[in-house]
Design goal:
homodimer; about 300 residues; alpha/beta; Nucleotidyltransferase, domain 5; DGOK (chains A, B); 2-dehydro-3-deoxygalactonokinase activity (chains A, B)
């Protein structure tokens, strides 16, 4: 089985997987995100990061994520949804490194969300390809939680449309830079407080009003100072999940820590959420895309 | 006419007014907010700030704002709404400075908002007292835009209830610290883009999804890079104003620059918004409260 390298290169992190056929035989989970790399030095940086794997050969490299954005190494135009996974492989941007590795960058996807606003993803489409190879259903919904959480509809083995929720970024902003997070003691997770926030999120109070309750419940000592992050997390994840169907099962793809949080919220709301590891989906998805690129039967 | 001093001391700013009866004869608009003052040095700082006005007398000082909060000089318990303005004067916290000035700190107000969540204000109650002295109507709504915008119902010359929207703080967080504000050129105000955002705000798209459109419209070049602040401002003010009645007139109390923005949004939404200067309301309100404290007929 031939070796190749899969790379997930995002704004704030770099992860690489040394692959043999469809199997990951080694990982490199540490590396600088795009924001830490100067324009013009992507190739040099990649060579340094992958050095341990270059003993004898110039392995093919398949990359996904913000590395294909305007601020990345090479801008790869978005593919318009609805789109098949095969079309992503076909529209990958290819070039060759100084050390003769063939490289492909998988394009991101854009669409109009069900709320009729433009939306984009870069990187998540690979996890979707992986889940699609695992789950044979014709039509299903997926949540990919994170800085910019994505809610996706897969229809007929294609990415139909999606919407981005700024859940993770809003949580970081509010807990680190706003009055709501000011002068907090070390935080402890409270499932009770998290559930209380999910309960409130169902009222559909305007979010910019509801968030202020993280201050007033604290002032009133109705929520303890060490549980404010649990409360904020519940309000924001709740605001996202109250838009979801309670009749259809929904997949949740991500790190175990994040998907566990979403599963807790979903359970409380009566949503049937099935979690799956994001790395597993990424590896499965990028193998599928590579097989297509390499002309092998997936 | 006797002289006295009115002080509005908030988290990030200090403003003082030298008064003669109901008339402001001098202003001091520069001074450090509470966050810049160490606990225990409020008195010394106040003495330094008011020095120019202390030539011959120890004038009475009436203060309002976060100076009465837990993080302020003296914590003054909130008065529970519904409450009259007279009750605020009656529950002012009084003490005497080293230089023999009698001081009163006006309490803030707390309530449960119409969305059934706890809410608080400190400082705005003085502007409300001022507007109430100007506007004789029995029942009306008021918006006080700002970092934490307040929507208030006055009923029978009392503060009935209110809700806080984190409009100003969310705008600052998103424009300064989020991906939406990253690498923007100097901003220009665009009324067209502001209106476009107000139009979208009416769709009641979940806010954490809608905000992401500031990124995607920029990526798609449908909104110019120099108009992103106008767009964000429109989305956030819009999300606040779509909750308002279009059949009843509403007052808007604040700085001319802020109230003008709200007036533009309100006009677009068919809301009858009447703007009034926040300083004028503050001076009128604190005079009213001081007259009550001093036992004079307001």
């Amino acid at each position: 089985m031939k070796r190749w390298i899969a790379v997930d290169w995002g704004t704030t992190n770099f992860r690489a997987f040394l692959m043999q056929g469809n199997k990951c035989i080694e990982r490199c989970a540490q590396g600088p995100g795009l924001l830490q790399i100067e324009q013009g030095s992507f190739e040099q940086e990649l060579s340094r990061l992958l050095q341990p794997w270059f003993a004898q050969a110039s392995y093919p490299i398949i990359m996904a994520g913000m590395v294909g954005s305007q601020q990345g190494w090479h801008e790869v135009p978005y593919v318009e949804a609805p789109c098949t996974f095969a079309s992503l492989a076909e529209q990958a941007f290819s070039f060759t490194t100084r050390w003769a590795s063939p490289v492909w960058i998988i394009p991101g996807v854009r669409c109009h969300s069900p709320y009729q606003q433009p939306d984009v993803m870069r990187g998540e489409e690979v996890q979707l390809a992986g889940l699609s190879a695992i789950n044979g259903s014709a039509r299903y919904q997926i949540i990919l939680p994170g800085t910019h959480s994505k809610h996706v509809l897969i229809d007929n083995q294609s990415i139909s449309h999606f919407s981005t929720y700024m859940t993770g970024e809003l949580f970081a902003l509010l807990s680190q830079h706003s009055i709501l997070g000011r002068a907090l003691p070390p935080q402890e997770y409270s499932l009770e407080v998290f559930h209380f926030a999910i309960e409130l999120a169902q009222r559909k109070t305007p979010l910019s009003h509801q968030l202020f309750s993280a201050r007033t419940y604290r002032l009133n000592k109705e929520i303890a100072e060490q549980h404010i992050h649990s409360y904020l997390s519940g309000l924001l994840i709740g605001a996202e999940l109250v838009t979801c169907s309670t009749t259809q099962p929904i997949w949740c793809v991500g790190s175990p820590k994040l998907t566990e949080n979403y599963a807790q919220a979903a359970k409380y709301l009566g949503i049937n959420l099935q979690t799956i590891d994001g790395d597993e989906c990424f590896i499965r998805g990028i193998s599928h895309l590579y097989a297509h690129i390499a002309g092998e039967k997936p």
